[in-house]
Amino acid sequence: MEKKGFKVPHTYVILVALVLICAIATWLVPAGAYDRVVNEATGRSVVDPDSFHFVENEGGMHPFDVMKEFVLGMESASDIIFFIFILGGSFTIIQDTGALAGGIYAMVRKFGKQQNLILCLFIFFFSVLGGTIGMAEEVIVFVPLLVMLCNELKLDRMVALAVAMIGARVGFTTGLINPFTVGVAQGLADLPMYSGLKFRLIFYAIILVVTCWYILRYANKIKKDPTKSVLYGIDLEDTADMAQQNDDNQVELTGRRILILFMFVATLAIMVYGVFQYGWYMEEIATVFLILGIVCGFAGGMGPSKIARSFAAGAKDMAFAALVVGIAKAVLLTLQDGGIIDTVVYYASSALSGLPKIVAAWGMYVFQLLLNFLIPSGSGQAAATMPIMAPLADTLGITRQTAVLCFHYGDGFTNLVVPTLGSLMGCIAVSKVPFEKYLKWVMPLCLIWIAIGFVSVTIAVMINYGPF
């Protein structure tokens, strides 16, 4: 009898298992808490590093309360969930007009032989957005568009997911002038805002080049031999059918479709401007795309009923993505309600005291890497750890700038694989790439990023990386 190999469980099973593990941990790890105070410089509520104390609890979370966390997770992540529904519905309306297919088809006919250049430009574009406006959840908007582009290039959905999501993570992770990681952390560490940029730029360039090489190597491999795709047998047939359908229908750029493309590009520009200039988030972006979908539907000659049917079909396709985000949120809520996150931070900071400089910096870095599985929010993790790590760095003889570096690398690198991160799971679900397939594909790149991080942190300690 043929032995069956290990099969990675369904995404829902993985997330539910994480919730259960966290619930069990609430029975094993003593509950503790730091007092919270308002940081006058940032206006954020942060921990008082000298206020940790153990608190009494009733022995951990009970089964009913654990199950309730799934409902609370859905409520807590409602902004992302409805953002995904509206995005899916609006994008399907635009897609049904034929404008996107026609535009991408024309682009491929003109620039198809420059595939590597096209992919690198998109990766660079998303990395700049990630490093400046902190693009994370917003990148979900671009994933369906990249899927269509990769379909025409005879590439799989993994490439589309990587170019959009990982591209944005390159800039987000390496800091640059990301307001949600470096900006918040430097404010809490009493450092000049966005100081130390030159050092971060060097490692941004290194990670960008490595990431482009990793994605292009895979793209070129499956272009030569489609059976090498990690999605072969799952995604490739669907990709080929869509590309063939576009060829059969001979999608042309009519006047209406050109107008829709113009409105689509203009809306993306408005979105980026709104995020950067006015601090737009999910609600505003979803509203913009809802308006865009309806207007494009009418511009494409669709009647009200057809627009409604397209929207409903698109939203239906996003149900899996929406549920993934809500279940993932339940992991964090379980840890928070169980009262053990502050205890983990306290024990970790205590263990780092008295270590040699480089070893202590490595310890900070590893701690932030692991803590990111529990607190995937960059600004949330900064508020929980930087008030502790900044003065700890002073006692260890490490610059506060290095402590910030350890934080935003630790927060960012494991964002490639953290199943509790809403933006990651949203992108994966929208791209329709199975999480287990993605995890297997991205893990080597994640380890490369982590190794580069060790080199960067070591150099930072050696050169006494300062605020300028």
Helix-and-strand structural type: mainly alpha
Oligomeric assembly: single chain
Separation, N- and C-terminal Cα atoms: 65 Å
Estimated radius of gyration: 23 Å
User: How are the strands of the biggest sheet laid out side by side?
Assistant: 1-4
| Helix count from the secondary structure assignment | 20
Uncertain spans, ≥5 residues at pLDDT below 50? Answer: 235-250
Helical fraction: over 70%
Biggest pleated-sheet summary: 2 strands, antiparallel
Shape: globular
Q: What's the order of the H and E elements?
A: HEEEEHHHHHHHHHHHHHHHHHHH
Fraction in beta strands: under 5%
Would you report the number of β strands? 4
Mean model confidence by pLDDT: 81
Structural topology:
Layout: H1 11-28, E1 32-33, E2 36-38, E3 45-47, E4 53-54, H2 63-76, H3 78-96, H4 99-111, H5 115-132, H6 143-152, H7 157-174, H8 179-188, H9 197-224, H10 236-249, H11 255-278, H12 282-299, H13 304-317, H14 319-338, H15 341-352, H16 357-371, H17 378-396, H18 400-413, H19 422-431, H20 435-462
What does this structure look like?
The structure is a single chain. The chain is an all-alpha fold and 468 residues long. 72% of the residues lie in helices and 2% in strands. The protein has helices spanning 11-28, 63-76, 78-96, 99-111, 115-132, 143-152, 157-174, 179-188, 197-224, 236-249, 255-278, 282-299, 304-317, 319-338, 341-352, 357-371, 378-396, 400-413, 422-431, 435-462; strands spanning 32-33, 36-38, 45-47, 53-54. A two-stranded antiparallel ribbon has the order 1-4. It has a two-stranded antiparallel sheet with strand order 2-3. A hairpin with a 6-residue loop joins β2 (36-38) and β3. The longest helix has 28 residues, at 197-224. The protein is globular, with a radius of gyration of 23 Å.
